[in-house]
Design goal:
By secondary structure, this protein is mainly alpha-helical. The chain has helices at residues 22-36, 50-66, 69-86, 95-116. Helix 2 packs antiparallel against helix 3 (69-86) and helix 3 crosses helix 4. The longest helix is centred in the last third of the chain and has 22 residues, at 95-116. It is flat and about 45 Å long.
Length: 119
């Protein structure tokens, strides 16, 4: 489909697409929206408190490097609980956080345990 009313906006067309096709504009706008939207709440994180900043950082960084949202969330939950425990603020952690963190420890331990026992 060729859209003559849309201008090129200075970007070269994607390989295999004609200049000005609708797919180029939809894809670029969608990627821009998807990357800008989730980044907005990051400015609300208290990066002065290490026990809050490190779990948030791990959650943000682990997701793209492992290609898994679950791994990123798990790293955040586990590190949050462990850092609160290490800083003497374990009473501030809700019981469900402990349960979810322990569940993620089990989730991460399944692979190494299976490979240890030849599974």
């Amino acid at each position: 489909m060729r859209c003559r009313h849309l201008r090129h906006r200075g970007r070269p067309p994607a390989p295999g697409r004609s200049q000005g096709s609708l797919g180029d504009y939809v894809r670029s706008d969608t990627v821009g929206f998807a990357t800008a939207g989730p980044g907005t709440p990051i400015r609300d994180i208290d990066f002065t408190d290490f026990s809050t900043a490190l779990p948030a950082f791990l959650t943000i960084v682990v997701m793209p490097f492992t290609y898994s949202i679950a791994n990123g969330i798990g790293a955040g939950f586990i590190s949050y609980v462990l850092l609160r425990l290490a800083t003497g603020r374990a009473q501030q952690v809700h019981v469900l956080m402990w349960v979810v963190a322990l569940a993620f420890v089990g989730y991460f331990a399944v692979g190494p345990i299976q490979s240890l026992f030849g599974g």
